[in-house]
Amino acid sequence: YRTPENISGTRTIGPDGDFSSLGMAVRYLKENDIAGPMIFTFTDRLYLESPISIDNLYYTSGPQPITFTVAPFNSSELIFSALMNAGYGIRLKGVQKIIFDGTNEISNSRQPYSSRKLSFQVDTLGFFAPTILIEGGCRDISFNGLNLSGYRRWDGSANSVIIIDSIGNISGDRNIVFENVGIERGFNGIFIQGVEGNSRRIIIDQCEIGGEVLNGFNQGGIIVYDVDSLIVRSSKIFNIKTFADRNSLYGIFLGPGCTN
After folding, report:
1. Of 157, 194, 205, 249, which residue is most buried, by most CB within 10 angstroms?
2. For the segment 200-210, what is each residue's pLDDT rounded down to a tens digit?
3. pTM for this structure?
4. Residues 6+ positions from 109 with CB-CB distance below 8 Å
């Protein structure tokens, strides 16, 4: 039973803030009705988080933009310990207008490969999982100015850093933007399984996909199936090396069902 309040405005996440963790901030969102734009600002340098699912949000009158950003002149890192029954760092499921913005007064120059002040990674001692999982018909999702590190271990076990999985949702996931994002450590950088004709406008702009040694990838930079209008521009893909010759290598792989 929900006894919600109408919420909007700005909140902080940190030791002396409104919430001590991202998990608590997301719980607050789910328990209330979102009446206007909201901005959550990370104020601390390090957060140890359980898996977080952003879903089942309620609004007073249609979806409102929700932004997670970093305090000016600061940088923040979030480490997620994925679980077998929650196999992700952050999951976005069927939500709209979610923005992760790692730019601030110093780094918001809009130049290629500018500074990134917000970092997410999954703990490689935890469950085999992507750092970001997008599913359930998401719309208008933006990642800007982030570093994302995935799951890859010395024994070759690895997962994609970002997975967009539209299987099971006929409307697909649309208008998903990655801008100035560093992506490293995993099996693939970005793996997209769309729904043919309905998963549209996935944009990868000014991103760096790759890393040194174990921070590289076992198979590919970008792997895509059944997406209409994939845009990749001004981005780098590098240091992809198979583990023990187990699989083929790809910079960008466009599978069946990709158009435009």
Report:
1. 194
2. 889 999 999 99
3. 0.93
4. none
